[in-house]
Each structure stands twice: as structure tokens, then as C-alpha cells.
Amino acid sequence: MTQYDYDLFTIGAGSGGVRASRVAASLGVRVAVAEERYLGGTCVNVGCVPKKLLVYAAHYREEFHDAAGFGWTVGESRFDWSRLIANKNTEIQRLNGVYEKLLGNAGVEIIDGSAHLVDAHTVAVGDKNFTAETILIAAGGWPSVPDIPGIEHVITSNEAFFLEQLPERIVVVGGGYIAVEFAGVFHGLGAQVTQLYRGPLFLRGFDDDVREALAEEMRKKGVDLRFDTNVSKIDKQNGALNVTLADGSAIQADVVMYATGRRPKIDGLGLEAAGVELNPYGAIVVDRYSRSSVSNIYAVGDCTDRINLTPVAIKEGQAFAETVFGGQPTKPDHTIVPSAVFSQPPIGSVGLTEAEAGEARPIDVYISRFRPMKHTLTGSEERTTMKLIVDRDTDRVLGCHMVGADAAEIIQGIAIALKCGATKAQFDATVGIHPTAAEEFVTMRDKRPDV
After folding, report:
1. Residue 131 sits in the same domain as residue 156
2. What percentage of the chain reaches a pLDDT higher than 90?
3. Residue 376 CB: number of other CB atoms within 10 A?
């Protein structure tokens, strides 16, 4: 008889927690996972998956318009928000079931309910206590909103997926990828969208040329972007919301959505009782192997605030299981991680931005802006932007960035090249696929002059 009920108890059945639990179970250890909501975590339920489905839906309006240039006559179209949400919900429920089967088939016990630590080896779920040799915190993140008058009237991305009807007018507050993506979704589906951001330009952390290019394209499409703008209060008036800005002006809206950041979802987990150290931003402090300040407690995913992306959480969960239960100490690799913003048009990015690369070395920059072939017949003024940042001394490609159709699909492939240390000469030696937008990455020859 062993000392504990389980070898591993995981709190949270999102991407990182599920991967860690399944891999650990496959290695022969006894695993339980507690989840208080739905299996799959943020990504499956109120994140990546439903968001991408809404992004697909939002593209159809432009596709119907563009079809005329290719000889198609499209009849009267009508969008039904309730049907989209119902179909989305059906797909998410299917995925919840898939996750349940994956865990069950792996031999992981699923415990429904909110879990918290009693001590370093004890987890309470409801009125039951469970002991485990190792505990993994994979509780994810949660939307964070500022404390301003009227904040109770707003929604976050969590609620946006379940609105009963499409708003005619919506104000989206925030400048991160969630705000940008939802601004594009609501606009594409027919709403009047105003996006507010307190800084001079949204998508902080992305390459500046990418940020500027996307802002230009969104404004062309009709999204009202307002930077250096703060909300002072929100009032409900005659069934609508009145958003008062810091300069005294106001915007009328049916819905106000805040996407002003996310924070680790650690409230009520009892981390203090177990002695788990947090950083000043409320994230669990971990070492390179995802171990916390308590030797048998680990953490992966958004609650550690390293790189808050689903594939990164999965890698962290895999590495944790291999380290602790597989006898193969593995550090998750957080370098050269590709990312995408499913804006309209989308962004794909991997490696360093121009500002980051230029801080430590001389660089060469290659940039191209062009009208995609598709739009030579549609009449659209949308333009694609592509950019390469190259180490001048070694010729290694340090960063690759794109704004345009299929950016995420293209950058995923190029990320492999950057991970392998590809040089600009190797990009140049690669034969392009013609005619594609992607071939531009292997045909850019002219360096941007140094400023």
C-alpha cells in the first residue's frame, strides 16, 4: 500500500493539464485530474477553438462580395447569429466528450469540482480530500478588467461567445490579440465596431511594421480604431450603454467588451497554505522544469505566465511528465515560438521583432508590401505585408512576420526553418511555389536602407 491516493493529482483539465495527465498515466502512474468547469480549458471552451469558428464566419461577408469579381452572382445573404452560436456550442460539446474519452482511455480519473490545496500533498474537492505524491497546478488564466465606474455593465471574451444576439454597436476595449480578433469578428458579422486602446498603437510586443500595417487594413475595412484613449466610466441609459472617455466625449453602444488582459486563475487554490511562491503579478514561480518553490508541486500553462499559448502549455505538460515520471529531465523550450493573431487580415509571426533584434547586433531588414493576386479581380485595396530580419554578421534569419491571408499557415512552416537556424542565403536558394503569396519570403532581395 502506497502512502498517497495518487501519484499525480492535476488541478485543471485544460491543454497543459490534460497532456501532462495523459502522458503520466501512460507511464504507469495513478493520476486524477480535477476540473470545475468544462474539459479542455480556455482553448476549447472560450478561447482558440470557438474564436476561430467565429473568425471563419466573419470572413464570409467579404467572400460574398469578392465573388463578383470572379463572375459569380451571389443572391441575397442573411446572417443568423443564433444559428452560428448553436452550431459552435454543438462542436464544443463534441470536443468536451473527446477530452473525456482521451482521459478515460488513458486511465486518468476525472473528478468534477473546484479543487484547492490543503497542504503540499493534500487536495480538497468539495467535502473530500485526496492525497498525492506530486501535484500539478494547471488552472489557466481568467479575464481581468479594471475597476472603473460601470464596469459591471461590460462583458469579457468569456461572455462574448454566448451573447443571445449580435449587437448592432459594440465597443471593444483593449489592444491585445483578443481585442483585435473580436473587433474583426464583430465587424465582419455586421456590427458597428469601435476599438479603444490606451496606448499609441495596439499589439504591443509584435513588430512595429506589422502593428502599423494591421491598423491601416482594419481602418480600411471600417473598424473605428482609437488609440491613446481611456474610458473613465460606463453608464446604462435607455437600454444602451454610454461610454464616457477621458477627454469628456462619449460613445453609444449596445455592448461593451473588455479585453484588457488576463491573469493567472489562482484565487482560492490555497497556494499560500502549501507555501507556493507567486511573482508580483500573481503567477506561480517555477524553474526550468516547471517546479514551484515547493518540491513536489509543479505548474504549467497560463497560471505560470511564461508564454500563454495553448501549444506552449501542451509542451510544458509533456516535459513535466517526462521529467517527473519518465526519468528524462526535460526543459520546455520557450525560444522561437511562432504565434498568430486571427485578425482580419491575420498576422503570423516567429522570432525576433526588428526592435528586439537590433538591440544586440547589426541587422538587415527585408520588407515587402503588395496587393495579393486574388484582389486584382475583387477590387479590394487590402495589402499583404511580409518582413524578414536577418543577422548581418551570420546571415541567420532572426524573425519572420506577415500580415495577410493565410499568414498563420505560412508562418507555421517557416517557423521550422528558423528553429533549424536557416540563413537568408538558404531562403534565397529555396524555389518558391508560384503563384503564391508565400513565395515572397524566398524572393525578397532588396534590403531596406539603414535609417
Report:
1. no
2. 98
3. 10
